[in-house]
Specification:
Family: Belongs to the thioredoxin family. DsbA subfamily.
Structural class: alpha+beta
Strand order of the largest sheet: 4-6-5-8-9
Mean pLDDT: 84
Distance between the termini: 30 Å
Keywords: Disulfide bond, Oxidoreductase, Redox-active center, Signal
CATH class: Alpha Beta
Number of domains: 1
Organism: Ruegeria atlantica
Domain Thioredoxin: 21-219
GO molecular function: oxidoreductase activity
CATH architecture: 3-Layer(aba) Sandwich
CATH superfamily: Glutaredoxin
Largest sheet: 5 strands, mixed
Helix content: 40-55%
Radius of gyration: 17 Å
Shape: globular
Number of helices: 10
Length: 220
Amino acid sequence: MSRIATGICAAVAVAAGGYWLSLSNSNPAYPLISSAEAQEADLDTSTIVEMTLGAEDAPVEIIEYASYTCPHCANFHTGAYKQLKKDFIDTGKVKFIYREVYFDRYGLWASMVARCGGPEKFFGISDLIYEGQSEWTKAGGPAEIVDELRKIGRLAGIDNDQLEACLQDGTRAQTLVAWYQENAERDGIQATPSFIVNGKPVENQSYDGFKKLIEDELGS
């Protein structure tokens, strides 16, 4: 299971060729963006849309914390998640909430592309990102990787101008990072994928494991 790099000190900047995030794993006392920096930048994390699937009043709520560059997260999304969606999310038994975790600039770029089409396209784009993870994460350097993410966005029907606007929105990037940190600190997230089922922390499970957890919550 991948560990969250809590010791990352980051500086965010917008470059002509796209959005760039410089990272330094130097001191575990420093988060990606400190609360003081967030206040100075006037970052309003309430502007970040919570990405959800399923009935709002479903009896079971599952929150997933995941990184687009995490292989275990890709395994979950291309495996157990699809069956969970069919059996429990689409049937109104589970409300599913997806929250991004940012290990690196690539995962942040992927998130910005996934969110570029709004809530309606978010989960479809996320599926494409996870399905192609082994390819786009190994495309080469930063320029090649962001080009592969652009291709995924275009495949989902987002035009070039909209993609560039999303990728070059530095304030949005900082706000996403601050939002992620608030969530992770509040819920004590230390690894990905991590899950919270009706308020209780749960480690990554097989489909059968999740099925039993959900059925226990439903009283089945």
